[in-house]
From TrEMBL:
Region called Disordered, residue ranges: 1-30, 95-126
Upper lineage: Bacteria, Bacillati, Actinomycetota, Actinomycetes, Micromonosporales
Signal found in the keyword field: no
InterPro entries per the UniProt record, alphabetical: Ig-like_fold, Nbr1_FW
GO terms of biological process kind: carbohydrate metabolic process
Protein name: Ig-like domain-containing protein
Length: 286
């Protein structure tokens, strides 16, 4: 910059502020406004922060839920609400889930009512002159006779050759899981600072797909440290598997609640509609 040139004030970039949805726009807009207000009440964290807090949904899905354009699925709704109302504001999980599920169902019912269209009355049938009716009847009889003759010819041609039956298509594969329980360190366990322990969960493969090359992916950051990806032993349909994750505790007192989702090597999650599994311990000298 040349001598004597006036200094330019630094340009401050402001992040985009999320526009509040219109609660008067309809059931979907009203429900989105409830989510928007909950987010503000919880300190207005970014959607990236909500994902780090353990919401098992993408940032774009969380953002879309509070925009009011479409009604989010119940699974996305609960992840949005859980990390804010339960984890951040400390509300009771069961009561909160019941309250918000009722709100979501009302919005869903209201949306369905708005989308219902009244079917237009059918056009009246044209009046056919008597002679035309006779002609139509003759044409119908002729068509029926011709169809019968064609059917007989086809039966004769296929006689003794067998009729080829359509083969049934392949059965679609189904990938699913059931959480069977905590094997070690149940929720609320007190663990000492500067220590290590292994958290173990048990899952069952209830689908028809073999679980191979799958991992348990950590979904958020907490004072306790755990690997980003933990291998899951190969599991056949119908089998159970115990998944062990090593955990290191911090040097001082803390509460640790780490969420995990099943994922592949690239971090793409399976079962996006299911809740994540988690460990929930308290770090203390006892």
């Amino acid at each position: 910059m040349g001598a004597g040139a006036p200094e330019r004030a630094p340009v401050r970039r402001r992040g985009r502020r999320t526009a509040r949805p219109d609660p008067e726009s309809g059931p979907v807009g009203g429900f989105a406004d409830l989510l928007w207000r909950l987010k503000k009440e919880a300190g207005d964290p970014s959607y990236e922060e909500m994902a780090k807090l353990g919401a098992a949904a993408s940032k774009s899905s969380l953002a879309a839920a509070a925009q009011g354009r479409t009604l989010p699925s119940w699974e996305i709704t609960w992840e949005f609400v859980r990390v804010l109302a339960v984890d951040r504001l400390g509300r009771d999980a069961s009561a909160t889930e019941k309250e918000w599920r009722e709100q979501w169902q009302r919005a869903q019912s209201g949306r369905a009512a708005d989308e219902t269209e009244v079917e237009p009355a059918p056009d009246p049938e044209p009046v056919v002159p008597p002679r035309s009716r006779v002609a139509l009847m003759v044409a119908a009889v002729a068509t029926t006779v011709i169809a019968a003759v064609v059917a007989v010819v086809l039966i004769v041609l296929n006689d003794g050759q067998g009729v080829e039956r359509a083969e049934a298509g392949p059965v679609a594969e189904h990938d699913d899981s059931v959480f069977e329980g905590d094997i070690t360190y149940p929720d609320g366990t007190v663990v000492p600072p500067k220590s290590s322990f292994t958290k173990v969960w048990r899952l069952r493969n209830t689908g028809t797909v073999v679980w191979a090359n799958r991992f348990l992916a950590r979904a958020n950051e907490q004072p306790c440290k755990a690997p980003d990806l933990t291998p899951i032993p190969q599991t056949n349909p119908g089998e159970t598997v115990d998944i062990a994750v090593p955990v290191d505790t911090p040097a001082g007192p803390a509460s640790c609640k780490i969420y995990f989702k099943m994922a592949d090597e690239q971090g793409r999650t399976f079962f996006p509609a299911k809740r994540p599994i988690f460990l929930d311990v308290r770090v203390s000298e006892r």
